[in-house]
From TrEMBL, chain A:
InterPro entries: AAA+_ATPase, ABC_carbohydrate_import_ATPase, ABC_transporter-like_ATP-bd, ABC_transporter-like_CS, P-loop_NTPase. Transmembrane segments: none annotated. This is Sugar ABC transporter ATP-binding protein. It comes from Streptomyces coacervatus. PANTHER family: CARBOHYDRATE TRANSPORT ATP-BINDING PROTEIN MG119-RELATED, GALACTOFURANOSE TRANSPORTER ATP-BINDING PROTEIN YTFR.
UniProtKB/TrEMBL annotation, chain B:
InterPro entries: ABC_transp_permease, Peripla_BP_I, SBP_2_dom. Its main location: membrane. It is a multi-pass membrane protein. PANTHER family: D-ALLOSE-BINDING PERIPLASMIC PROTEIN-RELATED (PTHR46847). Belongs to the bacterial solute-binding protein 2 family. It holds the Pfam family Peripla_BP_4. This is Substrate-binding domain-containing protein. It is found in: Cell membrane. The chain crosses the membrane at residues 22-43, 55-73, 80-98, 104-126, 133-152, 172-192, 223-242, 302-322, 343-363. It comes from Streptomyces coacervatus. Residues 375-628 form the Periplasmic binding protein domain.
Length: 509, 650
């Protein structure tokens, strides 16, 4: 108990929200110089737990001890004083201020009442060097990519002399190369004696980085195990059952071509993209971030315009740049940005589920509210959306349940061609499998599924065919049996433009 | 829905729990109830059937406008143009029916179409032109106001009698505006709750991109949303004009802000996605109860504005606290936290009540001493020294005669003045003195006063087509003529001059202008090279004069229809004023007279506002005591120049 190395101890924390018990008896502890992984499904209570530490929530019961003394954390100031820094998935940075200003926001060094820019920038430079970012502290945060934004957040935490650093899914938005860099920095911080609480859904990262793992399930801490624990065992702890198969793809017989895309081009963005998706088939689109995958599917769905080419559903051409025409043809899109594009966050589950069918449920301008509610109740039940009721605002649902709502609204509309853009990003293993099973049900019923994913095992595990995009073009197509991680990566980093003589295409990159 | 579920958890506590829940879920309703209780405690005149109907009538126009704005705000937009569109629609109706001989039914259709067209233009600019709603509707605010001035040529137009019934009562007691308000409210609730477009508004307001990607035709919906707002604005404009029996091109100025305030007080978020018809109605009622109550309590016109602002802020604050309380469960094991917040809500409500009661009893304490006679003075504005002097004269005389005098300020809004006159009739006054915003627009309200049996005395401006026991005024037409004569004499009968006009459409401006033009006929050597309105305002006088000097650098004289504009013009003229350019003003205000003394202002046609106020009160008292008075008391105007300024005081 009185371990000198112990930075933080949480005992029997409990927290309730309207209709939900978020945490019920969680124990956790953190030592100097360790990476303690917090593992659990979405909605298990990880976010609530770290919000207790950052002062956003106060516990209903239980104790928090920092350095052996019981503390009450009532706000960001309290946690800052205790040396606890949190890096959320959504960064807390002001885009139009410089890096240095962001790092020292609210605590800018002052001279004669004026901000001492020189000192501030010099100190920022030291911090940036510590996290291995080679950018001027005078650069505006708006100009930085996601990986660097994260490093700025870490630098900010370091500037606070944080002894406890909490990182909420820091790798979710990073490429594998960036992840390696992040790990190097985290290891260095560990050597410096910082205690790190690390939240991730990527099991392979646990062995690579972690020291200990605490697993949370349904608001309770169900076990503390060393990081070398086998993945199967971790999954079993996390979901309370063993998942036999992470990618339970059941191949249906491919039917006729449902979606045909021919020579789709938007100058400077994507070029001459052609492919087909057959009924009962899952086609995956792999590629690096920025390869133009999202742009292509948005154009197919009519959300963005394109310059050349055609989109056909079951042989009939779909009007370009017209979401409603695409919907009428039976296309549905689960967008990449769930909160920004998929959901009306402050509306209820019922209202969100009814969005796509709102028009068809309207007779003479009047909405059949009763029918909408019944349909919503049916689909929420079918998808197993965990909620307090249909009236619950989707903002308060966990990521996996939010995604189920987005998918649900398209299922209600009898979608024939479903496009999923990063459908499982930020979703835990259990919910992922449920979404894969939904995909199976869809294809078994004769629908065509087009799935973009940056998660290679997922693309390989779930697709019947894999299209690989690079630099706005289809770099190649792989059948399920020939698609390996190496083959996909080789295509993803290839330069498919050399086959073409168009100079315009190369200029775009 | 959330209410239902939460209610069921507290169901055990029964009916009182349900009521508490209702109040907690509806901060605005709580605020309204608190306000009503406070008002009835403070004024015996408040809780009468007549007065409550008055409140309804006074809320009607704001409420109808606010219903339209609710659609826009729910969909995360804003509509600043509703006041102007209301005035434009009413003007179109009156103009087509009265001056163009269009059948009244068709004229009504035309007016509604005008409102919808304005809304469609807004919607088009926002959807397809990608203009921010604030800018698009701000532009429409200006265009609408301008067009209504163009169509009406600045003067109020009489409203066709058959439509004016919309301002009357049904069966002698139920005011039609209240009926229209309730009807429009039901329509709004229905549209928001049950229709495709209504449900789309919430989705678009909540997350426009998600709505678009779910197949909602966002652009087309926005066209319709703004068209709805225009339609409601047209309806509000017709009701407003019907109450005044006259379409005023300057009507409903600033009402867009009242409408937005009503929507937000009612619980909607300017960020979009929330808002209800019932909330908006409550918001509009809160504003109306406040104005009515403050009138009844004879709170000083200046303090009224302060109180209204404070109550708006408190009402929204109450709602915010309520929401926080609502976010904490009353469910299983509710700890002290939830109850603590509920308690906070009650405490805040109590504080609001105490503040309202305290402020009002403090602010109207001056008039609480029992006096024999009570007289009301409804002024058109207090934003101008002239009227402030009328008030000063009236107050001085009232004190001398031992009369209890209540003064209201209509802020140059004919509709607000109608409300204030209505409120006066609930108070059992001996006489009402009215300084009409507009001589025609005041008619219906004046007739209502006649009906109540309270005698009416008009001051400064006549009241047309209603009985007034006396008119105390100075002669604007003669004044204009005098101004022309003295200016022409000063210039030796030759030269070029410009005229700064008062607010377009104001009767004083028309009369002074007419007198001036008539007076100038005798001097063919004088040429008027420009006539521009500067709205009675010193700053505008400065700006307009500066602009005119660019076009006409060599003018010899300026006639400003009041002293304020003349003083602005003098600023613009700089060293020329009083030397190469002779400026003549009107009113003889203190500032104007000192400029005459200084020589920068050549002359001011002085009315004697203090005298106007004094004589008005004298006459009002006589009338109240049943004595005979002269029907028309003309307070002389005289031209004050440097020679006679010493012996003159307003």
């Amino acid at each position: 108990m009185s371990n000198a190395d112990e930075l933080l101890r949480i005992e029997g924390i409990r927290k309730t929200f309207p209709g939900v018990v978020a945490l019920d008896g969680v124990d956790f502890d953190l030592r100097r110089g360790e990476v303690h992984v917090l593992l659990g499904e979405n909605g298990a209570g990880k976010s609530t737990l770290i919000k207790m530490l950052s002062g956003a929530h106060t516990p209903d019961a239980g104790r928090i001890l920092v350095g052996g003394e019981e503390v009450r954390i009532h706000g960001a100031q309290d946690s800052e004083r205790l040396g606890i820094a949190t890096i959320y998935q959504e960064f807390n940075l002001v885009p139009d201020l410089t890096i240095a200003e962001n790092i020292f926001l609210g605590r800018q060094p002052r001279r004669f009442g004026m901000i001492d820019r020189k000192t501030m920038e010099a100190e920022a430079e030291v911090l940036l060097a510590r996290v291995g970012v080679n950018v001027s502290p005078r650069a505006r945060v708006r100009e930085l990519g996601i990986a660097r934004l994260q490093m700025v957040e870490i630098a900010k935490a370091l500037s606070l002399d944080a002894r406890v650093l909490i990182m909420d899914e820091p790798t979710a938005v990073l490429t594998s190369e960036e992840v390696e860099k992040l790990f190097a920095i985290v290891r260095k911080l560990r050597e410096d004696g910082v205690g790190i609480v690390f939240i991730t859904h990527h099991l392979e990262e646990i062995a690579a980085l972690g020291d200990r793992v605490t697993v949370i399930r349904d608001g309770k801490s169900v076990g503390q195990v060393p990081a070398v624990t086998p993945e199967d065992e971790l999954v079993r702890l996390m979901v309370g059952r063993s998942i036999d198969q992470q990618y339970p793809r059941e191949r249906a017989d491919a039917g006729a071509a449902l979606l045909t895309v021919e020579g789709l081009t938007r100058d400077g963005v994507f070029h001459d993209v052609s492919f087909q998706v057959h009924a009962g088939e899952v086609v995956g689109i792999a590629g690096l971030v920025g390869a133009g995958r999202t742009e292509v599917v948005r154009a197919v769905f009519g959300a963005d315009p394109y310059d050349k080419g055609a989109v056909k559903v079951a042989g009939a051409e779909v009007r370009r740049g017209d979401v409603n025409a695409a919907m009428a043809a039976g296309i549905g899109l689960i967008p990449e940005d769930r909160k920004g594009q998929g959901l009306v966050l402050d509306a209820s589950v019922e209202e969100n589920l009814g969005l796509v069918t709102l028009r068809s449920a309207t007779r003479a301008g009047l909405v059949d509210l009763k029918g909408q509610r019944e349909a919503a109740a049916r689909i929420a039940d079918q998808l197993g959306v965990r909620m307090a009721g249909l009236w619950q605002h989707v903002r308060t649902l966990s990521g996996g349940n939010q995604q189920k709502v987005v998918i649900g609204k398209w299922l209600l509309a009898d979608t024939k061609v479903l496009i999923l853009d990063e459908p499982t990003r930020g979703i835990d293993v259990g919910a992922k499998v449920e979404i894969y099973q939904l995909i199976n049900e869809l294809t078994a019923a004769g629908a065509a599924v087009l799935m973009i994913s940056s998660d290679l095992p997922e693309v390989l595990g779930m697709s019947d065919r894999v299209l690989v995009m690079a630099q706005g073009r289809i770099a190649g197509e792989l059948a399920a049996d020939e698609a390996t991680q190496d083959a996909v990566m080789a295509l993803a980093v290839s330069n498919p433009t050399h086959q073409k003589t168009e100079t315009e295409a190369t200029r775009g990159h | 829905m959330a209410t239902d579920t939460l209610k069921s958890t507290t169901g055990a506590s029964g009916a009182t729990g349900g009521l508490r829940r209702l109040l907690l879920d509806n901060g605005a309703l709580t605020a309204l109830i608190v306000l009503v209780i406070a008002m009835s405690a403070l004024s015996g005149d408040f809780m009468t059937a007549d007065n409550l109907l008055n409140v309804g009538v006074q809320a009607a126009v704001t409420a109808i406008l606010a219903f339209g704005v609710t659609f826009v705000i729910v969909s995360a937009g804003i509509d600043l143009s509703v006041g102007s569109v209301a005035a434009l629609s009413a003007t179109v109706l009156a103009w087509s029916a009265t001056s163009q001989g269009v059948p009244v039914a068709l004229a009504v259709v035309l007016a509604i179409a005008t409102g919808i067209a304005c809304g469609l233009v807004n919607g088009f600019l926002i959807s397809y032109g990608k203009l921010p709603p604030f800018i698009a509707t701000l532009a429409m605010l200006s265009v609408g106001r301008g067009l209504s001035l163009v169509i009406s040529q600045g003067s109020p137009i009489a409203f066709p009698g058959s439509v004016s019934h919309l301002g009357d009562t049904l069966g002698g007691w139920l005011p039609v505006p209240v009926l229209v308000m309730v009807l429009m409210g039901l329509v709004t609730a229905f549209v928001l709750g049950r229709t495709y477009i209504g449900r789309s508004m919430y989705a678009i307001g909540g997350n426009e991109e998600a709505a678009r990607l779910s197949g909602l035709r966002v652009k087309r919906q926005k066209l319709a949303i703004y068209a709805f707002s225009g339609l409601f604005a047209a309806a509000a404009g017709i009701v407003l004009a019907a109450r005044l029996s006259s379409a005023q091109p300057q009507a409903a100025q600033g009402y867009e802000l009242d409408a937005i305030a009503a929507v937000v007080i009612g619980g909607a978020s300017l960020a979009g996605g929330t808002g209800k018809a019932s909330g908006t109605l409550i918001g509009a009622l809160i504003l109306a109860v406040l104005r009515n109550g403050l009138n009844l309590l004879s709170v000083s016109a200046f303090w009224q504005q302060v109180v209204i602002g404070v109550v708006i802020a408190l009402a929204v604050l109450l709602d915010t606290v309520r929401r926080k309380a609502g976010a904490t469960p009353v469910t299983a094991g509710a700890s002290g936290d939830g109850r603590g917040r509920q308690a906070a809500t009650y405490v805040l409500a109590a504080v609001v009540a105490a503040a309202v009661v305290g402020a009002m009893s403090f602010l109207h304490s001056g008039s609480s001493a029992a006096k024999d006679q009570k007289i009301g003075l409804a002024l058109s504005t207090l934003n101008n020294p002239f009227f402030v002097q009328i008030r000063a004269g009236a107050q001085e005389e009232a004190k001398k005669l031992g009369v209890d005098l209540t003064v209201t300020d209509a802020q140059n809004d004919a509709s607000q003045q109608a409300n204030q006159l209505q409120n006066f009739t609930s108070e059992g006054l001996g006489t009402i003195i009215v300084n009409a915003v507009d001589s025609d627009a005041v008619t219906p309200a004046a007739k209502a006063v006649n009906k109540s049996g309270i005698p009416l005395v008009a001051v400064d401006r006549a009241v047309n087509n209603a009985d007034t026991a006396a008119l105390v005024a100075s002669d604007n037409v003669t004044g204009g003529r005098l101004a022309a004569k003295s200016l022409a004499d000063r210039l030796g009968g030759r030269g070029t001059i410009v005229v700064l006009q008062g607010q377009a459409g104001a009767s004083a401006s028309r009369e002074r202008g007419a007198g001036f033009t008539a007076g100038l006929k005798a001097y063919p050597g004088i040429k008027v090279v420009a006539e521009q309105p500067a709205d009675w305002d010193r700053t505008k006088g400065l700006d307009v004069m500066t602009n005119l000097l660019q076009a006409h650098p060599d003018i010899d004289g300026v006639f400003a229809e009041n002293d304020e504009m003349a003083l602005g013009a003098i600023k613009a003229l700089g060293s020329k004023a009083g030397k190469s350019v002779a400026v003549i003003g009107f009113d003889g205000t203190a500032d104007g007279l000192s400029a005459v003394k200084a020589g920068t202002l050549y002359a001011s046609v002085a009315q004697q506002p203090t005298e106007l106020g004094r004589i008005a009160v004298q006459n009002a008292l006589k009338v109240a005591e049943g004595k005979k008075v002269t029907k028309s008391v003309m307070v002389p105007v005289k031209v004050v120049t440097k020679e006679n300024v010493a012996g003159f005081s307003g």
